[in-house]
Amino acid sequence: MFSNFNHVGFNITKNKLQLVEVVKESSKYCLENVDEHIFNEEFDFNVEEIKIISILQTAINSISNRIALKSKNISFSLPLSEFQVFEIPYEKSLSSSGLEEHIKWEFSILFPMLNASDYLIRTLRLTSVENENRILVVGLLNKTVNELLSFSLKNNFTLKFIDTAHFSSDSNISLSENKKNLSIYIENDFCSIISYLGMELHAAKKIEIINNNALVNSISEFWESLNIAYDSIYLASTLESDELKINLEHRIKNTIEFINPFRIINISESFIQNAHFLNSANSFSSAAGICYRKF
């Protein structure tokens, strides 16, 4: 039975669709389903809407045939490759329209082949230890948003959130006023690093992955440039990352913790503890994080 209290989080990668569903039982929210569908071909948003919807529909049907969904509410976390992400300084005196124009101008300089008007733009204020005024700009094509909305409407779902896989994953991190946290997210083609000072976003960087050695160097260089003693460093990835974690820990001389999104949620009485839940919790951090956000 569908319920407005329940919620499904989908994480789309190049190779698969991952799902985490949470349902309300009595007064508690509980984990109901953890599953994934492997695509027959690499998923690409740069194709016609009809093909995107068809691929997603096949994936949803495949998962639902194993365990029927109980939620009307859905959300999506998407690959880092689908977003334009950049940091810019700004003047506090700017009006909202002035800031919007400033962002469009910066966008045109950084991405001359793209049109800022084609993107849904989100801005996040960055806290600073040097009293600078900086914002993080995150842009997602309107085309992609409309395609996910069309898919949701076709299936009588209510679309709640769309976000980057990294910000989705970070919903699993408990931020607190006196703690400094560094978060690393790795997927097929890109890595993202986010620094939090207390409850505030401090810095972010998106890195294109060439190979593991270059990636370790890039993460280490960014970490060193921040010059902050972090209380915790977290890693999440849809890929096998044990070796990378070991190499990175050796390089930065700090312990890194894999995110396990299932430690912080109650388990439904009907939940079946499958291999995804038992062996691949970290890889579901984005699907779980975007799912938990509703609550």
Your description of this structure?
- This protein is α/β, with parallel strands linked by helices and 295 residues long.
- It has 8 helices and 14 strands.
- The chain has 3 domains: 139 residues, ATPase, nucleotide binding domain (Nucleotidyltransferase, domain 5, 2-Layer Sandwich); 60 residues, Dna Ligase, domain 1 (2-Layer Sandwich), CATH 3.30.1490; 85 residues, Nucleotidyltransferase, domain 5 (2-Layer Sandwich).
- 31% of the residues lie in helices and 35% in strands.
- The strands form 3 sheets. A 6-stranded mixed beta sheet has the order 8-4-1-2-3-14. Strands 11-10-9-12-13 form a 5-stranded mixed beta sheet. The chain has a 3-stranded antiparallel beta sheet with strand order 5-7-6.
- The relative contact order is 0.18.
- The model has no long low-confidence stretch (mean pLDDT 93).
